[in-house]
Amino acid sequence: MAKAAAWHASFTSHSSPSPPFSRNPMVPAVFSLSFSPTTHTFSSAFPSLSIKPKRPNNSFQVRSVAAPAEDVAGFDEMVSGTERKYYMLGGKGGVGKTSCAASLAVKFANNGHHTLVVSTDPAHSLSDSFAQDLTGGMLVPVEGPDFPLFALEINPEKAREEFRDATKKSGGTGVKEFMDGMGLGMLAEQLGELKLGELLDTPPPGLDEAIAISKVMQFLESPQYNMFTRIVFDTAPTGHTLRLLSLPDFLDASIGKILKLRQKIASATSAIKSVFGQEETQQNAADKLEKLRERMLKVRDLFRDADSTEFVIVTIPTVMAVSESSRLSASLKKENVPVKRLIVNQILPPSASDCKFCAVRRKDQMRALDVIRSDPELLSLKLIQSPLVDMEIRGVPALKFMGDIVWK
Ligand SMILES: Nc1ncnc2c1ncn2[C@@H]1O[C@H](COP(=O)(O)OP(=O)(O)OP(=O)(O)O)[C@@H](O)[C@H]1O
Question: Where is this region: Disordered (predicted)?
Fold first, then answer.
């Protein structure tokens, strides 16, 4: 049985006209906060929650958190060292991946790391989570943390278009048409077999993510971004992530085939191509494709490097979500992706026993936690329990509040 997590919180908001936390209508009240319009200070109906303003601008401070040993995430280990580390957070849809990823990024930044938080979920919610506009596919500074924190929402469709352009010119449909025109039908058929054009027209789930992650690598390769020591990925829901893990290999093979085939046909067509003045364009495209291939290989290696990368599974305390997390953990292990931690988010606190509905729900959640503790795929993972709070986790102060509870 998990012990109670008790916390004392203080929050002030001078910049936002409305409270940054709104009550989630889908969940029963666990503890209540009242809002004073004159001071913009939340105060709790619970005597154990002491509210006091700390900083003039948005601030949410957790003063003390008593937590059971298994709740400790091992943040000291996560934060130590100046070498670059990657954390990928993933799990079922809606369990709190973005909130956990964003809160981890804020905590890293507040602990002195240049941090980048990246969303590779085609349905981005980083902007919503930080309550700041972080769109645009470029690195955007996040306002609020003590140390530089940047966010990047990769536009998957745009990234795929760039990829498509490169492959089209160098071996996809473009070359196929060109070869057809040259009367080299057989080679054209071989190119057709690669089905790359088709692949990009109806991309399998996960492809966008693979390309998005390779795009991140492109950013990180450039010298102006080598100051980042912590990179946190908010990944797409489980299914996509699982398929994504095998994609770099698949794409590497496809790109490799195209490049080989291109080499083969290069001599046969170079004379004709030079007549049409296409030699240079083709070479540039081939170079671009080769770069993409190298990046894919890096992504594949990155997923499996236990020294620099960790996949953190996020789940909620329901048997269905736990079963899915178990499958995710098994697949990650099969792919040799390092997994050490499991966050169980949205746990009702013991005080929920005041309400009959909540008490029954909490009992059910405790059963799900027991399932985790006896699941062969999950029992070896560090179990991090995160309470369901009576407010939406939105904005840096709220993310700091959550981070201080989860990442200890
Ligand atoms: N511990 C918590 N207590 C209360 N609300 C929470 C908690 N964790 C997450 N939420 C809320 O649940 C909602 C979904 O969270 P979030 O966007 O982080 O989930 P997600 O797994 O990233 O979702 P998606 O799969 O749709 O991207 C948000 O409104 C968030 O504020």
Answer: 1-21
